[in-house]
């Protein structure tokens, strides 16, 4: 027995996978539609598209419910994991990790900032283990000194 043909990934709509996931849990088109916030005909249409895409019935009628086919059951775990990973990735944006940053930053500050703020800022960078290079340039064009410190 040969493996079923693989669909082109570009042809797979993520919304179809969410429908399949909820249908496997609910085993009822009406309940799945309610849970998804869709109409029953929209869920039926999504199932029809999935059947064509995967070349499998996916569900067979068993009284008032439907039962997943072996192909649908084999897809259930991997699809659930993939949807969870996508959801988790989109739900919480990554916070900027300044300790892993290796950027170059220029600060344009005046004399007071250079005397008061810059030493504190550089100490904070040093203590926080932030990577990168900070360069401060005087705004006065007559001043030729450039302060640079590698952290």
TrEMBL record:
Q: Give the top-rank taxon of the lineage listed in the UniProt record for this protein.
A: Bacteria
| Key words of the record | DNA-binding, Transcription, Transcription regulation
The protein's matches in Pfam families, at most eight in alphabetical order, are given as: HTH_1 (PF00126)
InterPro entries for the chain:
LysR-type_TF, LysR_HTH_N, WH-like_DNA-bd_sf, WH_DNA-bd_sf
Instruction: State a single Gene Ontology molecular function.
Output: DNA-binding transcription factor activity
Q: Where is the HTH lysR-type domain?
A: 12-69
Q: What is this protein's name? A: Transcriptional regulator, LysR family
């Amino acid at each position: 027995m040969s493996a079923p043909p693989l669909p082109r990934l570009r042809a797979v709509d993520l919304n179809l996978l969410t429908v399949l996931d909820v249908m496997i849990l609910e085993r009822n088109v009406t309940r799945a539609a309610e849970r998804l916030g869709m109409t029953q005909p929209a869920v039926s249409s999504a199932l029809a598209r999935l059947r064509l895409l995967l070349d499998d019935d996916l569900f067979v009628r068993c009284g008032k419910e439907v039962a997943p086919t072996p192909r649908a059951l084999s897809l259930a775990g991997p699809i659930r994991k993939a949807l969870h990973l996508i959801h988790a990735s989109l739900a919480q944006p990554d916070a900027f990790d300044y300790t892993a940053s290796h950027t170059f930053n220029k600060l344009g500050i005046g004399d007071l900032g250079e005397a008061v703020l810059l030493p504190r800022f550089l100490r904070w960078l040093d203590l926080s283990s932030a990577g990168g290079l900070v360069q401060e340039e005087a705004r006065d064009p007559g001043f030729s000194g450039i302060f640079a410190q590698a952290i």
